[in-house]
Amino acid sequence: MSKKIDPLLWRSIRLRLTFVLLGVLLIFIYVSYKIFSVYFIESEEYIRDANRFHNSNIKINIKRGTIYDVNGKKLAISIPAKTLYARPRAINHKDKAVKILASFFKLDYSAVFRKLFSKNRRFLYFKRMMSEEDAKKLDKILKNNKITGFGFETESKRVYPQQRLAAQLIGFVGADSKGLYGVEKALDLKLKFKGEKRGVLKNAKHKIIEFKNKDFSDIMGVYNEVTLTVNSFIQYFVEEELQKGVEEFGVKRGVAIVMNPNTGEIVAAAQYPTFNPNKYKEYPSKLWKPQYLSMVYEPGSTFKTFSIALALKKGVVTPSTLFDCEHGSMKLGRFIIHDSHPHDMLTVKDILVKSSNIGVAKIIEKVDSKEFYNFIHDLHFGQRYKLNVPGQERGLVKKLKRWRKVEVANISFGQGIGVTPLQLISAFSAIINGGNLMKPIFIKKILDEDGNIIKENKPRILKKIISADVSKQLKNMLKAVVSNEGTAPRAAIYGIEVGGKTGTAQKIDPTKRGYSDKRIASFIGFFPIKKPEYVILVIMDEPTISSYGGVVAAPVFKNIATRILKYEHKAPKSLELDDLNLNLPDLDKNIKLLESVRDIEKRLGINKSKIKKMETDKIKMPNLIGLNIRNALSILEKNNLDFEIKGKGTIYKTIPQEAVEINKFESVKIFMKEIY
Amino acid sequence: MSSKNLGEFTRDSYFLILIVLVLTLFSLLMVDSASSLNDFLASYVLKKQFIYISFSWIMVWAVSKIDYEKYEKFTYYFLLITFLILIFVVFAGASAKGASRWINLGFFRVQPSEFAKIVIIFYLAHSLSKKDISLIKQFSFGVLPHLLVIIIVLIPIFLQPDFGTSAVIMALLMAMMIIAGIKWSHIAILFSSAIGFGYLLMILAPYRMARINAFLDPKLYRTTSGYQLYQSVLAFSSGRLTGVGLGNSLQKRYYLPEAHTDFIASIIGEELGFIGIVFLIILYILLIIIGIRIALKAKSLFGTYIALGISILLSIQIILNLGVVVGAFPTKGLTLPFMSFGGSSMLASMIMIGILLNISKNSLKKGERPFTNYKQV
C-alpha cells in the first residue's frame, strides 16, 4: 500500500519543512516578543489603565441616625430608597423607554425625552429616592419590555414620620443626605459618617465586586441616635393651638416656645405657618428657618419684668413702692412716653400688672444705666447661646455709650432692643426659677448604635441673676397680671395658679425711620406659680383683630397650658369639662406604616424554614462581607448554614470569620449595617 | 513490510494524548473561570464545553481507529460537499454579530468552516502526494489547481465573512506547496500577490481598516474598534508574572467581550500571568513537535502531508490567536485550538488529533525508512 518515497524528494521535503518551520518560528518569536512586552515592557501604563477601569470610589452613606423626642418617639428616620439612574447611550428602545417613564412618573413625553437625551450625557440620575415598591414595579416593566440602559441604586431616604411636627427644629436633609437645617444640620457629623469615599472593584457594568478594604471598623460607631428635649405631644398641642390662634386673630405668623424653666430644656418650639420637611421643596425657604432662634423682635412689655427685677434686686424699690404714672403721658426730653391706659399712682407691682410704660421708665431711672446694661447682658440678650443648633440670631442691644435717657426708658419697657424668642424665654425662666439663668437645651443626648451615651446635655446654670426672694416677689407680681386687674385675664386657667406678662410692641417700619402701626403681640406665662414647670412664650407677629398680647397671645398660652395639664393628668377637675380635648396624636402610626415596607425578618423566616437538617459535615465559612442579605442568604442556604442576623443593610462582620471551619447547620452570626 | 501494524499506540501517541488531555482539562477550567461570573454565560458554558470535550474525545477514539488512507478516495466528494455546505451557510446559515458562520442543527450550531480545514488538508495532501515532483515544479500542475480549488472553497468562507479562517487556510496552502516542492520563483510570485491582495482587502472593507488602525494604536481606538484588543492587553498586563490568581480576573467581568471564546488566552494571561501563558505555549510547542514527528514517520507521503498539514494549521492558528490577543496582529475571529469555548472548533481540532493518532499507529517501525533505499541513490 505504502509507496516508497524518492529519497531526493524526501530530502527536499525535510529541507523545505525546516524552511517553513523557520518562517513559523519567526512569527512565533514576534508574537512572543509582543507577549513579553505586554507583560513586562508596556505593562505599567496598561496596569494603570486597568486600575482606572476596575477601581472606583463609591460614596458610602451610613444611614443617618434616628432622631427621637424625649419620650423616644421617632421624629426622623432613615429608610432604604431606590434611585433610578439612566445611561442614555445604552438605551436600546428610546421611544419605548421614554413612553414608559412618562407614564410611570406622569410626566410629559417631551420632558422625559429632554431629560434623557438633550445633553448627550453618559449617566444621569433620573429619579432619586423612589420607594422600594415603586422601584421594583418600574424595574419589572423595564425588564418585561427588554429596555436597557437603566438601573437602580440603593440610597437612604430620610423620612419625617411626624410630618410637620417640630419641622424647624428637626430641619431636613437634602438629596445628597446632607443636613440642611435644624438638628439635621447641626448634627450632620454626629448623625452621619463623613469619610464616605471607599475604594471598590467594579465590573464593566459598574456593579461593585468587592470593597478593597473589607475592614469596616472605622465606620462603626458613627451611626448615632439623637434624643431631643422636645416632647412630641406637647409640641403637637403647641402647634395646633398656635395655628388656631394665628387663624383666629389674623396673624401674619406665630411663634411659640415651651421651656422647662428649671433645666432650660426646650419642650416645644413651634411656628406657624410652617412646612413639611418631607416635602420641603414645596414650601418657601423662609419657612424653613427656626423663628424662635432667628426672629429678632422688640419684646415690648414682657421686658418690663427684667427692669423691675433689676430694681428689686438692687433694692431701690419694693413691690409696694409708689410711682406717679403721670396720667398716661410723660415728657422725657424731646420725647413723650405714653401708657395705653392712663394711671396716676401705682405700686411697682401694679406697674407690672397694668403694664405702665411711664412707671417702668421711672423705676429704671433709679438704677444706674450701666448696671441696667450689665443686667441685660447677664440675661444673655444681645448674645448667642452656645448651641448645637444653627440659625440663632444675636439680637440687638445698643452700645452703652449710645444710651441716652430716652433709650434707657424705652428699653425698660422693651422698645429699642431686639431679642430672640429663645433669649426672652431663657431670661424669663431665670426670673421665675429662683434666679438661675439656664443654658437652653435642645438635644438631650446623643447615643451610639449600641445605646451608649456619647454626649448628654445636663442642665447647666450660666449665671445667678437674682435672688430666690426677688424671684418669688416677681412670681407673685406676675401672677397678678393674669387676674382681672391685670393685662392678661384671658390667660387665667380656673383652678391653677399661672403667671405671666403680656407684651405689645410697635414694629419698626423698614422703609422709613421710626415705628409703623404694625404690632407684635406676645405673652409669656408659666405654671404652676410655686414651682414652675413650664414657661410658655407665645408671639403673634402682626395680628389684625387686636394688637394686645393679652388678647391675642394669652388665650393661646391658656389653651397650650390646659392641654399640657391634661396630658400630665394634673388638670383640676373643673378642666375636664372644658371643651378643649387632649386629643393625643398617634405618633407611631406613620412609623409602623414605613417599617412594614421592608420586613426583612419576615423574608428570613420563610427562608429559614426551607433549610432541612441533615448529617453534620465540616465546611468552610463563606465570605459574606459586603453582601446584602439576599445574596448572603443564597450562599448560606447553599452551605446549609443556620444564621442569626444583627442589624440591617450590608454585612460588615461575621462570626466565625471567613474560611474558618464549621459544622454544617451550625448557626453563624451576621452583623449588618446600613451602607448605601 | 506489513502496513497492518494497527492498534498499537506509539510513544508519540501517548504523549500526544497526554498533552491534549491536559489542554482540554485546562480548557474546562479556564472556560469556566471566564464565564462563571457572567450573568449570561454562567448557566451553560461549562456544561456545554464539558459535553463538547467529552464528545470530542469519543471522536478522537473513533477517528484513531479508522485508517486515514481510507478517506483518500473520497477526497473530492468531501471537498464538493464541504463547498456546498459552505455556500449554504452563506445564504441560509445562522448569524451572530454580523457574521453568518453557522448551521443550526437545533441542539448544536455547527460552524462548517472549522471542518473545511480538515477537508482542505486532505485535499492538499492527496493532490500534492500523488503528483510527481516534476509536475509539482510546473506552475499549471503544482500551483494553479491548488490555488484555484482553495480560492473556490474560500469564497464562501470569505463571504461569511470569516477572514481569520481564510487567512489560516491560505497560509496552510502556501506552506504545503512550499514543502511539496514548488519552484521558489512561484513562491515569490504567490507571496507578493498575497501581500497585494491582503492590502486590497484591507482598504476595501472599512471594518477591516478600522481593525488595522486599532491594532496600530490600540489606545487611541480603545473605546471603539480597538476596545476588545485594548481590554485584552489590559488583562495580560494586569496578570504580571504570576497572575491575579485563578478565578480572580477582573477583565472577565464584562470588560473583555468573548473572554471565553476567542479571547480565552487573555483570561489565562490575567489569572495565571506570564507563567500561565508560558505553560500553555510549551504545551502547544510539544503538540506541534509531536505532530511533525508523526508526519516524518508516516508510512506514506499522503500521511506525511496530512500530519504536516495538521501541525502547520494548528501552529498557525495558535500563533495567530495569541498574536491577536496581545495586539501583535489585527483582530480576527479565530479560536484558540483546544482552549476556546465552542463545539465546532473543539471537535475539528480533536478530529485532527484522532487523525494524527491513526497516522502514528500506522507509522513506520523503528529503523524503517520512508524511502526506497537511501544508499542506492
* Number of helical segments with 4 or more residues of chain B: 14
Shape of chain B: globular
Number of strands of chain A: 26
The rounded Rg of chain A comes to 36 Å
For the residues shown, what is the average pLDDT of chain B?
A: 88
- Which structural category do the helix and sheet elements of chain A fall into? alpha+beta
Spans of chain A of 5+ residues with little confidence (pLDDT < 50)?
596-616
Shape of chain A: elongated
The CATH class designation of the largest domain in chain A is Alpha Beta
CATH homologous superfamily descriptor of the largest domain in chain A? DD-peptidase/beta-lactamase superfamily
Q: Compute the number of structural domains of chain A.
A: 4
Cα(first) to Cα(last) distance of chain A is 78 Å
Helical proportion of chain A?
25-40%
CATH architecture of the largest domain in chain A: 3-Layer(aba) Sandwich
Largest β-sheet summary of chain B: 3 strands, antiparallel
What structural class results from the helix and strand content of chain B? mainly alpha
Binned, the helix content of chain B reads: 55-70%
**Average pLDDT number of chain A:** 82
CATH fold group of the largest domain in chain A: Beta-lactamase
Oligomer: heterodimer
Strand fraction of chain A equals 15-25%
Fold and architecture overview:
- The complex is a heterodimer of chains A (676) and B (377).
- Chain A is an alpha+beta fold and 676 residues long.
- Chain A has 4 domains: 7-41; 58-228, Penicillin-binding protein 2a (Domain 2); 232-577, 3-Layer(aba) Sandwich (Beta-lactamase), CATH 3.40.710; 612-673, 2-Layer Sandwich (Trypsin Inhibitor V, Chain A), CATH 3.30.10.
- Chain A has 23 helices and 26 strands.
- The longest helix of chain A has 35 residues, at 7-41.
- With 377 residues, chain B is mainly α.
- Chain B has a domain at 76-332.
- Chain B has helices at residues 11-35, 45-65, 75-92, 112-130, 133-136, 139-159, 163-180, 184-204, 206-216, 227-239, 264-271, 273-296, 301-325, 343-361, and strands spanning 94-96, 99-104, 109-110.
- Chain B has a 3-stranded antiparallel β-sheet with strand order 1-2-3, covered by helices on one side.
- Classes of the chains: A alpha+beta (676), B mainly alpha (377).
